[in-house]
Structure formats: structure tokens, C-alpha cells
Write the C-alpha cells for this entry.
Amino acid sequence: MSNSKPTRVFCLTLGCSKNTVDSERIIKALAGLGFEAAASAEDADVAIVNTCGFIRSAVEENIAAILDLVELKTKGNLRGVGVVGCLVARFGDELKRDIPEVDFWAGCEDTATILAAMTPGGAAVLPASGRVQASGELRHVRYLKISEGCDKACSYCAIPSIRGPLRSRTVGDLVAEAESLAHEGAAEICLVAQDLSAYGEDRGERGGLIPLLDALESSLPGDVWLRMLYLQPSGVGRALLERVANGRQVLPYLDIPIQHSVPRILNLMNRGGGADDMLEIFETARAIRPDFALRTTCMVGFPGETRSDFASLLKFLEKVAFDRLGAFIFSPEEGTVAADLPSQTSKRTARSRLDRLMSLQENISYERNSLFVGREMLVTIDEIRADGSADCRSYREAPDVDGVVGLISLPGGAKPGDKIRVRITDAYEHDLEAEVVEAVSRSA
């Protein structure tokens, strides 16, 4: 794919924030070989799709995106199309057979194959370390992937077969990367993995997440926020809750997917535990700090879920009062144990349950948001509009998945990434409104 001018490459990232990290590394490695990043497929010579293959709906959306790029290539707008990531790891053989127009394929973290396809001898070139952020992302929010893979083997999940077993990165590597992200202007660094709480277990370390947080806080500038996403309940104990609640830069926010609350369903999911075990986690968090922000994920329509099971889940959600909640309908994924379980729930019933659950959560979220009306909070500016209004986030809102703190006007000279102190004036189901109290700090 050589050319007299530098080849421009567009990398389309689909799926989770962990894929975002992988794409940034791909862009960096290609830049080391002289390729230029393009902001869109229309501006590119080559397009690479970094795919998600987690559930059926994602697979369908990803295939549609691939076909759109193939069409651009057929029309002569692109010279090449590459497909990489989870979808290839899961369905590579079928995809290669069904979409022969794709020029190259690569699995997860297979940068060598990408480089070999893009340039002669590319596979022999050591990929450049570091990452290059793709255009369109919040420039001041970056993701730090602390481990890859998962050993949990939940019965509905294909991730272990796609991403492999747990592989934790070293504290030294993570600190160095976090320092680099901060130097590049990161005002908030989100720690991500399939399960943050399992960090270090592949090396025989228990509770390895706390020393990592200590190392990050001691090395990063004091105004850089650290947010943790994706912790399994089984790995969350009082020591971690206290460490997070009392962190200097670690935000008192945890995303702990419960999936369900009924022991029988959790056992079928191969997750174990139940309402009492999980309730202790969340009650402890709120006892340590009443305004601890808690987010979770639930699954409805799992095989064998009865009306009584679903009612128990709703009661559990009312009792915990999560600040934020995401939910989805069980998807029988090929190759997973749960796909073959008896008593599959009908789509109609599952959809009805999802609607009821989200309606309940809207009320809970509104009640939690209302507790903050009249309070002062520190927020980070995400987006500023032409009229001077802005979308911001406090410690309670993770980027992309939660609501925002809206401001009608900002101080002159403010820019995305700056932190300011505001007073909350109104609350809604998902968002808050606020007024500026004072500017606090300026991003790099």
C-alpha cells in the first residue's frame, strides 16, 4: 500500500473503551512507519475497523459498518479495508469467507499482522510505544487498560474465548503510561479492564488494585482525576471501598455490575453470591461515604428467570438505590453455556421487564440526583457550545455512559478539561443543572 504521499489511515473504533486503547496503540504504531491519521473514512486511503463481538446486536452493527467501508472501497474512495479486534477473534473464518473484499484481518492486540499488511517488512518493525488519541474523542479524558483477558467464565459471556485469560500489566508500566497521558493533557484517567478487581491475580497477588492506586496517586499531578470502571462484586471488599472513598485523586465512584440479585440465577450465570452478599458491599460503601456514587449493570430475561425472580431484582435495586444503572436483555451467544440452557425467556417478556426496570431506575436516579441540589461540586468541562453553555461532569458521572452537569454560562476563557466549582440548581432523571461558583484550575 505504498504511495508517493503518506498513506492516510482512518481507524474506526467500535465497542468499549478497552477497544479505544487498542486503537490508539494501532494509530501510534502506524505513525511510527510514516502513516498519517485521517479524521474520517472519506479522508482516508485505508480504513481499519476495530471491532466488538460481545453480543449479537453488536456483531450485526459491526458487520454493517464493515460493509459500509467495503462499499467505499468498491466505489474507489478507499484503497484498502482492514478488520481487527474481537469480531475477528470470534468469527474470523466465517467473516473471511463472507466478506472477501476486506484486505486484511487481525485479532485482538495483533499489531504485527496489521503492520505486515500495511507495509513490506512492517511486521519486523518494533511497534512504537505509546498511543495517539483518535479525533472526535474528549481530548482531556483518557483510558488506562490495566489488564487484558478474564478468568471468570460467566456462562453468558464469550470474552474469555475472545480475549484470553487474565494478563495484568506491571505497576511500573501503568504508572509510566499514566504519566504520559497526563503530560498530553489528560484531566481524567479512567482505569478499565474486564475486571479491575482481579488485577494482579494472574501473578498470585490478592488486592493488587490498592497498591496500583497508591502508585498512580503518588506519581500524577494532583488535579488529575482517576476513575475506576468495571469491578466484579466478588473482588470488592471493605479495604478497597475505604481506599476509594478516601482517595486524593481516585473518585468515589465505582461501576460494579451485579447482573442479577437472585442466587439461583447468579449460579446459572456462574457468578455466585446473591442479594445479601452484594447488599453488604453497597451498604458498606454508603456507610463509609453517603454520597458514594454507585453504578451497576443488570441483565433481564436470563434463562429460567421467573416473575418472582424479576420482582426480587426490582426490590434489590430499590434497596440499594444505585446512582446509575445500565441494563440489557440476555442474548444467547454462540459457544456459551447459557445459550443452551432450558427455559429461555421470550423476547416480548424480556423487553417488558427491561422497560419496567429502566422506569424504576429513572425514579431512583432522580431521587439520588435531587440530593445534590443546592450543593457545591467540582466539575470538569467536557463541551462548550457557541452560546457559552456547557456540558460538564462531576465525580458522579463517567464519560459517555452517565448524565452531565449542564451550565448555562461559563467564565471567559474556560475550555474543555478545565475544572470549576459549581452549585447544583436543578435535578432530572439523568442530568443536573448548575451555576458557576468559581473557576478552580486550568487544564494543561
